[in-house]
Fold this sequence. Notes:
Strand order of the largest sheet: 1-5-6-4-3-2
Oligomer: single chain
Largest sheet: 6 strands, mixed
CATH class: Mainly Beta
Amino acid sequence: MKARTAVKMVATAAALWASIGTAFSEQYEAVPTNWRVENYVSSHSVKLWFTGAPGCNNGAIEGASLSQDDFGRLWSLILSAKAMNKKVGLFYNASGGVCTINSFYIDQ
C-alpha cells in the first residue's frame, strides 16, 4: 500500500511540475481567420499579428524561442485551423505589451 501512495505522490508532483510553465501565463483562444503569421528568416522566429490577444500590442505574439520543429507545428496548426474554422489556443507571457508564446494547441 505504501508503494502505491508513493507512486501517486510522484505522479501528482510530476503533473504539477509540468504545469508550472503555463501556470502564470495568459491564455487566449480564437479562430485565426484574420491572423497574420510572419516568419523572420534571419532569426528563425515567428510573430503572430492581429490575434486580438489581451495585453499584446496590435495583438502581436512572438515565438522567438521556438525550435524549428515547434515553428513548423505552429505554422501547420494555424493553417489547418484556418481551413477547418477551428480555434487555436495560445498560452503566452505578456509584459509591457510584448507577448511571447509558451505553448499552443488546436481546439477539437
